[in-house]
Design a protein that fits this description.
about 190 residues; mainly alpha; about 75% helix; flat
Length: about 190
């Protein structure tokens, strides 16, 4: 629809919202449709995470507490909910990765998507790296260590591939116009 600008913002939220505008039209209710849908699904994800970590009762309790929390109610209409939703999917697959390592690839993919909605989601990455470090150094068998190292390297490459468009955009914008993304300028103290 061409109604949104991504200047100073990470783009995936605005591109997704733009797609919703093209499908449903530029209406007041369509502005909140993505956030409300993903916020509702986040409740389900919290149930699944609680069930996976503990049991069904804890899953239900955590989902209920999230659903009635002021944080969820307030942020259910904000762009943060998309990032929270994809970060929760990432965490769910991370937990499932303890049983089957193929889920770690899905986990890092959804972490990258969460970052593309809101950069705060990348704060899960240090926790994931700490887990890999602990798991790596606790292994005595070299073959198992190699497998974990391979898993970590491929995961980092997947994350880098997902973030490459934003990084490239920032680099080109800086080279051509001397400006960068708001977050990059904050971190590099270019403001």
């Amino acid at each position: 629809s061409g109604q949104l600008s991504t200047i100073g913002q990470i783009p995936l939220y605005f591109y997704t919202l733009d797609l919703i505008y093209k499908v449903f039209g530029l209406e007041v209710w369509t502005m909140r449709l993505l956030n409300i849908a993903l916020g509702s699904l986040a409740v389900l994800l919290l149930f699944l995470i609680g069930k996976e970590l503990f049991n069904k009762k804890i899953g239900l309790l955590s989902a209920f507490l999230f659903a009635v929390s002021s944080f969820a109610i307030i942020n259910n209409t904000e762009s943060d909910m998309a990032s929270i939703f994809f970060a929760l999917i990432s965490f769910l697959f991370f937990i499932r990765g303890f049983k089957e390592q193929k889920y770690f690839y899905l986990s890092i993919t959804f972490l990258g998507i969460a970052y593309l909605f809101k950069e705060i989601a990348i704060l899960l990455l240090p926790a994931y790296l700490i887990y890999f470090g602990i798991e790596y150094f606790s292994q005595k068998e070299h073959r198992r260590r190699f497998k974990l190292l391979n898993l970590a390297v491929i995961s980092i490459l997947i994350l880098f591939a997902l973030l490459l468009p934003v990084l490239t955009h920032n680099y080109l914008a800086y080279q051509q116009k001397g400006v960068v993304d708001v977050r990059v300028s904050k971190y590099l103290r270019l403001d």
